[in-house]
Every structure is written in C-alpha cells, then in structure tokens.
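Could you join me in thinking about how sequence relates to backbone shape in a protein? Would you write everything just below, so we can both look at the same thing?
***
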Amino acid sequence: MTKTKSIILLRISIAYLAMLVLGLSILYRVFHLQTVEGAYWRSLSDSLTTRYVTIDADRGNIYASDGKLLATSLPVFEIRMDFKAEGLTEDVFKRDIRNLSEALSGLFGNKTAYEYYTELSVARKNKERYHLIKSNVSYVELQQLKQFPIFKLGRNTGGLIVLQHNKRVYPYDYLAKRTIGYVRDNNIQPVGIEAFENALLKGIPGKQLMQKAGNGIWLPLNDEQEVEPIHGKDVYTTLDVGLQDLAEHALMKSLLKHNAHHGCVIVMEVSTGKIKAIANMGMIKDSVYRELMNYAVGEALEPGSTFKLASMLALFEDGYIKPEQIVDVELGRKVFFNQVMKDAEEHGFREISVRSLFAHSSNVGVSKLVYQYYSKNPDKYLAHLRRLNLDQLTGIEIPGEKKPRIKTTKDTDWSKVSLPWMSVGYEINMTPLRLLTLYNAVANNGKMMKPYLIESVREYNNIIQKNEPVVVNPQIASEQTIKQLKQIMEAVVIEGTAKNLYNPYYSVAGKTGTAQIANNAGGYNNKIYQSSFMGYFPADNPLYSVAVVINNPRNGVYYGSAVAGPVFKEIADNVYASNLNINTKPVVTNNKSILKLCSGSKQDIETLYREFGMAVPASVNSNWITPVISDSSIQIKEMAHKDGSVPNVVGMGLRDALYLLESKGYQVRFTGYGYVKSQSLKQAVNNETNHLIELTLGI
C-alpha cells in the first residue's frame, strides 16, 4: 500500500513538474514575442493589413453668367518616398542619390543639394516608408520630377509616391468672395454658393486600396484608384463680373470716404429677379475692408425711410390718399403719446402734397397718414406688409439668410406708438435683399420676383438643372397704385432728397434712408446711423433695381443721399454709359420728341437718328456737324474750320475730338468725363500744329 502511494505521488509530481515547465515555457515565449520579436511581428502584421480609403472627387467649378470662372479646383501633389521599396537596391541608391539631390534642389530651391543628400541618406538608413519630399507641387513640377534619377524608375524600383490633392482657387480673388463662399475641413461653417450647392459640387468619392506600412502610415498599393471618383457638377450663377466689380469698387469708395463700419450693394435684374451683383464689405482695421459677412442677406436691421414705400403702397391701395393731396407736416415735428417724432432734415414745410412729403422724406407726414387711417385697425396695415412677403425669407441660395420681423398687435412689445414708428421703418427688422424685392416689384409693374443666384447646373457642359424666374406675387397692388408709387419715387430724384442723383440722360426712381441704429439696450443714444438708397433705373423702362446700405459712417456725414446715393449713381452711370441696349425715352420738349446729341461725325449722328426711329434732320455738306436744339426742333450746322485755325471741338464726345485734333497734328491731354466743355488752344501759333491742347470734359 505504501509502495502504491509512493508511485502515485511520483507520477503526480512528474505531471506537476511537466505542467510547470510547460507553463514557464509559454510565459517565456510570450515575453520573448512581446519584447524581442514584437517589432518584427507587428511590422509583418501591418504589412498584411489593407483597406479601401476614400478618394475625394474633383470639385465642380462655379461660373459667372457669361462663363467667366469664379471658382475652380487645381490639382497639387504631395511627393513622398518609400526607402524600403522592393527594387530600390543599395547600389542604385548610392549611385544616384547625389544626382537626385542636385535635381531636387534645382527644381524647388528650398534646400541645398547637400541638405537633400543628408536628409535622404538618413531616411534610407532609418528605412522610412513614407518620407515627405515636398508638398504643394504643381503638375508641371511633377512631370519634371518623374524624370529625375531614381524617381524615373517608378514606384516599386524608385520608391516614388505621388499623392494628389485638390486646391480651391478663386481667379478673381476677393470678388464676390462671401457670395461664392467656401467649404473647409477644419470645422469652419461653410458659406455661400459653395455651401448651398455642396452636394452637387463635391461629386462622388472614389476608393483606393491602401496598405498599412507601420506607425499609422498607409501606402497606396496601385497608382490608379480601384473605384474612380465622379467629378462634381458645375454651377453657373447669375452674377455679372463687370457689375460685381463695379459694385464693389463703388461701395469701397464710399466706405473709405465716410470711414463707415460696413456696407452692402445688391444689383437685381428687374424682369427676372436675377442677382447680377452682391457686394459686402466690413472694416477689419482702419481703411482696410474685406467680405466678413454677407450683410445683404444676413443682417436684418431697422431700415428707416426706405420702408416708407410699403406704407405708401398700403395708403394708395386702400384709396385713402392721392399724390396731390395736401398734408400738414407740422414743420417736421409731431408728438405721438409720450414720444416726439421729427423729420431727419429741417425743411420748414407746413402744408405740402403727398408727393412732396415722400420726396422730402417727411417722417411726420407718412406717420400721420398711417396713424390717421389705421390706428383703429392696425391689423389692416400689417396685412398689407405680409401680403408683400416682407415678413418672409426670400429663399436666396445662400445659407444664413436672416428672417425679417414685422410685429403683430399680439406681440408683447407692441405699444401705442408702434404703428407710427413702423410706418417710417422702425420697430421692424428687414434685410436689404428682402426690402429690395418690393422696389423691384414696383419697377416690374407690380410683379414680385424671387431673387436668385444660380442659373443652371451642368455636367460636361450639358444642362442638367435650369432655374427659371419665379413669380412670388403676380400683382402686389393695382395698376393705379403702382403708377402712383412710381411717380412719388421719381419725385425723390427730381425735387427731393436725392436731387444729387438727377441727370438729363436717363431717369431714376428711388428712396433715400437715414436710420438711427438701436444699441443693445434698445435705445438710440449712441448716434449710430445707417445710410441707404433703394431704387431702379431707367425709371421709364427699368433694367436694374439697386440697394445700397452703409452702416455707421463716422466722418460727420450720414444722410442716405450723400453716403449711399453716390454709390447708386456710379453704378447706374457706368451701366448706362456702357450698355447701348438700354432703351430710354428721348428728351421731350413741347410734345415733340427730339434726340439731344453732342457735336461730332455727321455719319454717326445720322445713324443714331435712324436707330432711334426718328427723322434725320436736314444735313449739310460737311463731315463734322453740330446739332443746334431749340425748344421744339433741331437744326444741323456745319463745323467750319478756317485754314490755320484749331478745330473747335467743344460739344464733341472725346473719341471724335481726339480723332479730329490728332488728325490735324495736335497733341491732346484731357481731364474729366462726358463731352468737351472747353479747350485750351483755339488758334494756331505760327501755323504750327504740334502744340499740346488740353480738353476739359463734363456732363
């Protein structure tokens, strides 16, 4: 029995020892794998790991209405090198490394050949798989680089790794930058058309098979993608590059002149609602402005007097007033309950017509009329504003449009003075674009159009989506009301606050605005003003409606006519001067239409008369003629020049004046614009013709 127990105990001990040895062996092996062989096996595991990586598609382009490129994507390349490439032998590396270093230094110029040689030698020694050679390499540089020593052997033998990225480029730099917008990867809120049409612009990503090379590095297995990305669609906008540049230039001039904080300009095509220009500028430091925000659609403030057009529409439409009706404006001062309302400018008027009180922007006159007829039923007045969609978003294709606010009588901040103040553009919030749709509708004979920026979407120049003009309201008011509104807006320019915009060549209609901006506490003690002008031109056959809003001018001048008006005028003047397709009524005198022309070429003047469908006046036997206009007729006279005399070019356009004088051998210098008002030399000296003649131009 004792012997049997001894045998059993021996067997158990042997088994125990065997298990102990096995366990110790396993622990040793685990320790060895983790510490001694760990790096090798992890590297081998990495080399056997592959996955598909998303490859971004080429982003679509954004174009202006005439096909000019506003935004595009250009390929840029990242050059890396795999020093453990299968075919990159030590002999090849040592033989060509110096030549490669010299070539890289010569191409990029960022390092000396010796610096490249040292860098590449160290990377080779460390057996780097993904060493960065250069970022932001152009396509042309890439083609040269592919012919360099070692690299020309290709990926597997030369270790060359080329990664393509797309860089967004804006050919016109800051032009309409906030409207065109951007989409970035670093958690920055996307804006503009880039954001609105991102789904179409970005295309469909592709797939590429990548292999893990250790340390989180992934290398493409092939030069080509396994699933090719599908390029993004192209977006064609309604923007006109020339008008956009003009709007930004005119806005910038006014901002600088008046040291204003920010401003915006919108140019809309009357008949369609197409936005032809939308400029936004904000001050980043003294005298430096950038497109910080799309103020035209993203800022809703109290508009002030430009809102009076909506009040007049309600009054005319309900039949309460007529343009020639006389109103007592009480010398521009009236008390509503506990608040005093004043006209912005002292004018000394007492009893004037509705037409005149609007033309001179009388706050008292407009508020008295609105309060007189709607104080017992404010909702009737408010209903007019809502029928004009003034409380709704326009739906423009830009993210971040600010919704307007029109109070209701049920709002907690409605008070006894809300109605008179709302009637002149206070206690409401309105974006410039929203209010411009009203002015555009009046210009369009009552048809309100939806403003839009995107004309079409194309794929390989084939239209796959086309946006047509959208009528929001076919008739915002009766024909009679629209006619009356046009009359009083033209009066603003003819006799009222915007007389500085008047010119004899084309008619303008609109309204100035000078509003105080409330501070955060709701008061107006900070004396910050917003200057604005909204209108359209030519008034008799409207082509464009324009909104100009300039916030916080700080050089002592803040009236809308002086700050915003000149911006409108510069845009309108340039459009009129450069667009021969603008149809306006000829000058009318004593009920007989005559065409007012400056002196010039007989052939050109007669051609213009025929083009306007007018009778050509009796001509004379001369190549250069002068139209002489009387009250009801026009006569043509010869521009006679005696031998030895200097041609008299006063009254001519610049082109004809230059041609005539230079053809006679004179040198010419000029200042101003328009037609020739005066010339410095009127008589030849000693029959010499090489004298300098200075011309002064004007309108």
